[in-house]
Amino acid sequence: MTNAAGYSLGLHELGVGCYAYLQPDGGWGWSNAGLIVGEGRSLLVDTLFDLNLTALMLDAMSPFTEAAPVNSLVNTHANGDHCYGNSEVVTKWPTVEIVASTATAHEMPEVPPSMLNALNQAPGEVGDLFRSFFGEFDFGGIELVLPTRTFDDRLNIDVAGRAVELIEVGPAHTSGDVIVHVPDASTVYTGDILFIGGTPIVWAGPLSNWIAACDLMLAMDVHTVVPGHGPITDRAGILDVRDYLAFVDTEASGRHDAGVDAFEAARDIAGLLEVSPRFGELGEYGRIAVNVDTVYRSLDPTHDTPDVVEQFRRMAELETH
Asked: Looking at the predicted structure, is the pLDDT value of residue 60 above 60?
């Protein structure tokens, strides 16, 4: 079940001092974040894609953070729509501790804001391509602020007496994905381990790790699930993402074994997904090109993965044909 009726821009109360900041429509760059409020202190889950968006979010949270300032920020993974706004948080709360997995901290500098800014401003076909994905965001003048504390596997954080569990489940979507579990609220913030209403994109993989992450969450006592993109959901949303990934893994693996080219396999599987009663309505369906390529790379480490420009070109091609 997805809470589509409540899917609107802004801060949403989940109960027991937990909040979700949602950005419809959840497509490229329109990510979610979260706030966990304790007695006099708060923990922020992720920032947004640019400084203006992050500032708007922090303003919306101010009725709660004035009495309970943010002293911990968790970046669930390295993608810019979950960490480029870190400097806004540091400006507001200079002593904030920024926490991420070790793998995420290593991966974050690989795609700095300056790179996306240059791609958005590039002339010709490359600039047009990236503006079609990210043209609504302003990457100029963003200083990437890296984590100040890293961990591997699991870390418990005390938020003014509230236990918050950080669980590393990557590599999956990226190299070091983390989910944020709030046991006393039966709530989990998943980062981009969940895309609800949109197609998951598996930059790192293997898909089996991501499926295992879904199984881990399904085994938890959680009732409220905040995805990295899309409306608030529950266990059914986790299961939908798990089933999509399992379907793609099976279909792509079979075509790899049969010697089918990765992009041709992606075209073929895209056709199956288009008529699927479960997956046919997912947005950003061109991401199947990246997902199939990741399966191929997982099965054959010598597989030649295209560069990032070509990956975006292929996704755009699938969505325009």
From this structure: yes
Q: For residues 268 and 263, what is the distance between their CA atoms, to the nearest angstrom?
A: 9
- Sign of the CA dihedral 114, 119, 121, 122? positive
Token pair 């990457």 in the structure block, residue = 139
- Bridge partners (DSSP) of residue 188 are 181, 225
What is the predicted pLDDT for the residue at 213?
A: 98
Q: How far is Cα 98 from Cα 46, in angstroms, rounded to an integer?
A: 10
Please tell me the predicted confidence (pLDDT) of residue 1: 42
What is the spatial distance between Cα 11 and Cα 17, in angstroms, rounded to a whole number? 12
Provide the Cα torsion 45, 49, 52, 53; round to 10°. Answer: -60
Q: Angle 34-150-96 (CA atoms, 0-180°, nearest 5)?
A: 55
Q: Which class in CATH covers the domain with range 4-234?
A: alpha beta
Q: State the pLDDT at residue 320.
A: 86
Domain boundaries, the chain: 4-234
Which helix (H) or strand (E) segment is 57 a member of? helix 51-65
Alpha-carbon distance 46 to 182, whole Å? 15
| Residue 191 and residue 211 in contact, taking contact as beta carbons nearer than 8 Å | no
How confident is the model at residue 4, as a pLDDT?
61
Instruction: Write out the H or E segment, with its range, that includes residue 188.
Output: strand 187-189
